């Protein structure tokens, strides 16, 4: 589980907490184990459904696109009256790296 804290940026006073959100990072790492080389760009590897254990506002797809694994998410903020945050995760293979 990944926990995200959202603050506003104030110049002359302390930053204000805008809320927090959590999401499951496991499916993203699981998708990295798939044999991705040779897949067509736009291939959906996983679909992550919103549920009570995550803050997803809508279904999120983990997609292989242009040589990168990408997940776009819209997360509902918790511990605040209302609000959402858009987030994108990307995994980019770097030549010479050992990966996970």
Outline:
It is found in: Membrane. The chain is mainly β.
Annotation keywords:
single chain; 100 residues; mainly beta; four-stranded antiparallel β-sheet; two-stranded antiparallel sheet; 1 helix; 6% helix; globular; membrane; metal-binding; CAR1-11
3D architecture notes:
- The protein is mostly beta strands.
- The chain has one domain.
- The protein is built from one helix and six strands; from the N terminus they run ββαββββ.
- It has one helix at residues 26-31; strands spanning 2-7, 17-23, 43-48, 60-65, 68-76, 84-92.
- The strands form two sheets. It has a four-stranded antiparallel beta sheet. It has a two-stranded antiparallel ribbon with strand order 1-2.
- A hairpin with a 7-residue loop joins strand 5 and strand 6 (84-92).
State the total count of DSSP E strands: 6
Kindly provide the radius of gyration, computed on alpha-carbon positions and rounded to a whole number of angstroms: 16 Å
Envelope shape? globular
Q: Roughly how much helix do the residues carry, as a percent range?
A: under 10%
Structural class label? mainly beta
Annotation field: number of helices: 1
Tell me the strand order in the biggest sheet.
3-4-5-6
Task: Please mark out the parts with pLDDT under 50 across 5 or more consecutive residues, or reply none.
Answer: none
Number of domains: 1
Task: Give the terminus-to-terminus CA distance.
Answer: 17 Å
Element pattern in H and E: EEHEEEE
How much of the polypeptide forms β-strand, as a percent range?
A: 35-45%
Largest sheet: 4 strands, antiparallel
Mean pLDDT over all positions: 91
